[in-house]
Amino acid sequence: MENRTALTPVLKPLNETDVTKWELPEGAIARLGRGVLKDISFSPDGRYLAVATMNGCWLYDLPTLTPLALFETERGMIQKIVFSRDAQWIATSNADGIAKVWDTQTLQCITKIDFRASALHFSQDGQYLAMSNHRGSAIYSWRTNTDEPVHRFPIEAEDTKGHRFPICFSPNENLLAYVSAVSPQDTITISDIDTGEHITDMSCPAPLAFQGLVFSPCGQYLASAHSNGDVQVCNVHNGASEIVHTVSGVTYVKLAPDATYVELAYTPDGTLRVAEVHKGKVVMWDTVQRKKVDTLEFGTRGICCFSDDGTQFAIANSREFRVWTADKSNRVVPMPDAHIGIVRWLRFSQKGKTLISAHGLGTLDWAVVNHQLQRIFRPDTEGYSGGIRSVLSPCEKFLAAAVLGVRHSNDIAITVWHITSGSLIAELTEHEKRVLQMAYSPTGDCLVSGSLSGELYVWDTQQWEKRHKLIGHTDGIRSAVFHPDGKQLITASHDKTARVWNVENGEQVGALPLDALLEDTSLYKGRSQEIQQFIDWKQKMGTQQSTYGTVCPGSIKISPCGSLIAGKLSRERRWKGIANEIRLWDAATLETRMAILLPADASSTYVLAFSPCGRYLASGTWWKKGLEQMSIHLWEVTTGENVHTFWGHPTDIHDIAFSPDGELLASGSFDGTILLWDVKAFIN
Q: Which helix (DSSP H) or strand (DSSP E) does residue 528 occupy?
């Protein structure tokens, strides 16, 4: 590790060890979880691990994997992260197509570059930053000119779908290796960035997707990994190449359960090290001696990388971090409360002391007072893809789960689990299509499930037998919620209807009116500009209003006392510029009581929640292009007034929930974090 600058970044004070309070948005009192993992990178001095997540960037101490710093939380959504070779800089790229360079000493952003990068690499001298995506590669002299790249290298391609586009600089010259052509002939080109000289091309005998590129320490050789498992080494100066390693019998297939891909690194003595990454293990190879070096076992697929010198290898997933070193030592740090995965739903326990959340393949219980993880329950979902959709019984003892990523017909079944014992107590197999929604009745004596095709079943939870099939919906179920008395069920569907059912006999007893326009404009509430815009548009269209389509119901909620139904309504695309809305109905008569026109920052409202007192309604938004943070609005139900707005998550808010005393609001996001908001100052 010669000529490396020691990395001494600005770290959190030693007494500031509660990471749940780091870099919180205004109004939040804690953050549970540290964000969905997207990429990791070793510092050149081998002391730190930089972790890119959908919530921001973390810096970990490598011996202990203790979090030391958190930055870039204003936007988050980080896709790639990499250190410069002198450890002075970190480059990141986010989902908005913005690359940034950060000073590692201050953790302040130095430069922003408009480029949607799928790969990042600094030159040896730190003067250039190379980036690539499915359209090609670009080189920026980032410290002197960030507006335009000094070089562009387009990709000759018929189709770039399914390809990765790695790039790398040589260690002793400013030679850049990049993908220059794919399909029908895959080619890597090596060029001298300083002189513009073309050095050589390295072609593959058949169309393959590249997975990785790395120069040898002497700069004479370039190794490339391909999606069929081959590792090819090319002599940069004479163009000669050979296959030095093959992953036996396995071809990489995206998201397949046995998926395999390859990571590459050269050690300082010139040994090419290959890591075969399988679903549950990593196999290390020495390609010079053509033998296995080691095997690492781990639970689930993760994000992984080599250190620059090939002496360390890290793999991280939602359960643990594992760091392997060349002496075969293997540090495993369980991190069940860190990068927990996408948040599916939230619920406070009846006493309010615990927050229960669902993430991917399981549920977690968090202590509300100290924000610590208390329990993890993961049903046995071996072989399932895409995680599970689940719902907790009112007694908090049973979890009903349905698979999100269905590959086989037998994946469609709903499984019911006893949480304490972990035993499977029922399997419900009536559905013919994937289950989208489930809900327990308030007493827990029945469970309703709705599918992609509109099928609705009511199940007896004592005998686990089908009570009724509710016939009416013709498209996917978007929402299902019981009335507090347990006798009625309200469902919303992609078929643009919202129906009310008698649970006891399975008959439809009503439907929510979903008029695209309300004749009584006094029912429209919200900000004055949205209301006036809507009224002006309504008057302008006159008799043509009926030609402007319908609205589609989304999230449906019922107030705690059962008197009001709230639902989010979306307008068709041709209504662009006219606000979406939250509509309120009288639960007894089903008459429309109010329509809250949503501002632009909340037009993609996705979830709703009534406060325990029923006086307020909270709404959380889905991501919308142009927004860097998603909004959570608090609405007064009687007036439609927006009493407060919180901003925090960088992407879709999947669920929100009030604590029983109404003083806390929890929001769970696609970013893999839960934020706890102090609402007592805004709700009386």
A: helix 528-541
Contacts 24+ apart (CB under 8 A), 534-537: 534/578, 534/579, 534/597, 537/578
Count of beta carbons in the 10 Å neighbourhood of residue 114: 10
Does an H or E element contain 348, and which?
strand 343-348
Q: Give tens-digit pLDDT for 345-356.
A: 999 998 899 999
Q: In what order do the strands lie in the sheet with 385-392?
A: 385-392, 398-405, 414-418, 423-428
SS (H, E, C) 382-400: CCCEEEEEEEECCCCCEEE
For residue 146, which of 138, 134, 154 has the smallest C-alpha distance? 138
CB 676 within 8 A of CB 32: yes
Euclidean distance between the first and final Cα of the chain, in Å? 61
- Rounded mean pLDDT of the chain? 87
| Alpha helix segments (H runs only) across 87-175 | none
Contact 601, 627 (CB under 8 A): yes
Give tens-digit pLDDT for 448-487: 999 999 999 999 999 999 999 999 999 999 999 999 999 9
Contact present, 649 and 671 (Cβ < 8 Å) = yes
Q: Which helix (H) or strand (E) holds 541?
A: helix 528-541
In terms of C-beta density within 10 A (0-12 exposed, 13-18 middle, 19 or more buried), how is residue 350 classed? exposed
Count CB-CB contacts under 10 A for residue 540. 9
**Spans in the chain with pLDDT lower than 50:** 1-5, 249-259
State how far the Cα of 609 lies from the Cα of 204, in Å rounded to an integer.
56
In whole angstroms, what is the distance from residue 121 CA to residue 338 CA? 27
- How many alpha carbons fall within 13 Å on the CB side of residue 592? 22
Identify the H or E element spanning 61.
strand 57-61
